[in-house]
Amino acid sequence: MQELLERKKGLHRKVLIVDDEFIEREMLKNMLGDLYEVSLAENGAKALEMMKTDRSLSLIILDLHMPEMNGYELLEIIRADAELRRIPVIVLTAEKEAEVKSLQLGAADFITKPYDVPDIIRARVSRAIEFAEDSIIIHETQRDVLTGLFNKEFFFEYGKRLDEQNHNMPMDAIVLDINRFHIVNELYGREYGDIVLKSIGDSIHEIVRRTGGLACRSGSNSFGIYMPHNEDLSNELESYTASLEDMVGDKNISVRIGVYLDDGNAADMEYRFDCARLACQKLRNSYNTCFDFYDAALHNKELHAEKLINDMDRALAEKQFKVYFQPKYDVTGDTPRLTSAEALVRWVHPEFGMVSPGEFISIFENNGLIHKLDRYVWNEAASQVKQWKDEYGRVIPVSVNVSRVDIFDPQLGETISDIAKKNGLEAKDLLLEITESAYTDNAQQIIDMVSSLRNRGFKIEMDDFGCGYSSLNMLTSLPIDALKLDMKFVRNIEKNPKDLRLVEIMIDIARLLEVPVIAEGVETAGQMGLLKKAGCDIIQGYYFSRPVPADEFRRLIEA
User: Fold this and answer.
1) CATH code of the domain covering residue 120
2) How confident is the model at residue 360 (pLDDT cuts 50, 70, 90)?
3) pLDDT value at position 6?
4) Staple partner for 468: which of 420, 436, 441, 530, CB 3.0–4.6 Å?
């Protein structure tokens, strides 16, 4: 592009004159020689040889009737060559009927025989060169250099224009991402990664050529295709992905494809691609299929999630989040005894009413906002423990959740210690629940953090024990004070002897580790009896009480 800009500032351009008539060639050379560097060829074959040797030509002036490859034949060769077709061609002709055919073959302009006055010919040559150079510069800025596809900005601009010109013809939007492309670059190098990208770009060029529409490279490893609506697209996607895999030639590289099919609602182009992108993102952790279609339910779910995210700060400030408490009972003696509770959060949303934690916890975990909610719950729980202590003269320890995000906060220990001190509590009055799966993410770092929390006096409960696939060897080194069985292990112990035996094995493991066992999700007297017989220490679940607000929890303390 720099070369083009320099040439546009006034440097000489190269013009090739192709004509079998010596006098004609010399006449044109005399007209243009003071402005351009002129080369001459007496036929199409000689001109083609010169063009392949010198790729810096700015213009070709071409006679149509010559021996050894005429002008029409040379035009066809130029049009078929991706590099040569950027050179503008002015045709020399005295035949009106030749103009249409020449235009169809890519000619830019005409010079009629006998020749016009020199100034007119110079103006035509100058205009053709400048127009071609401007077109090349525009082409370079609107195309991705590696793949030749449109860049994202021009893609959407042309797509909108296409919609306007075709009266909003039904169009489908496709988003294609390469799975784990950063790993490809790390394992094989960026040069190989570029080969993969170019191969996929070539296959997308072919798809667009066959189906119509536009395509772009919209990100480092993502592509967009905007094509006329196809009722059979769902059936044809398999052949598309197969052609992509054949073109790439590496079975270790796979793609995921999200599709928005035109549904007649006249949605704008950006909306269609937003929807296709949602469908593509849905496949991020899927290994069963490489493509999926957008549906309204998915979109509404995303909008709802975004609404909850946007409302979070206000909800914290207005205390819309309510902390409920579910009691835990020590069942090792003859009579169950209230020993502690678990803090569970509910959201009383001004628009949606009571929002289940199943709706918002995972959202906040995925975007990192969970640390704000956790601190809110820790403060609320500690404050409530203090109130019960002041009112009843006894401490009811409360367990609070510590998420993966919290664990990687170097100030975690200081933060929780400050909360306990502010409420006149000891560290052991706040029990910290950490899921088993968290220990397997970055074992040593988490073990170090949990050890520092225990050194401050906090008790650690491993939550969801049995779901995180910890090795027995790893369990012996984990700093924990209790194991909490996930409720799914308890659910069927009355009906399925294998489930009961599995629970008994986990209780045996706890005995080996010399820590108590907590079973949550206990709903029936039968479950309670079997767990007590197996040696479970603490029971939590609807058998004793559902999670209740702090005011209702008082009756459990007073019982």
Assistant:
1) 3.40.50.2300
2) very high
3) 41
4) 436
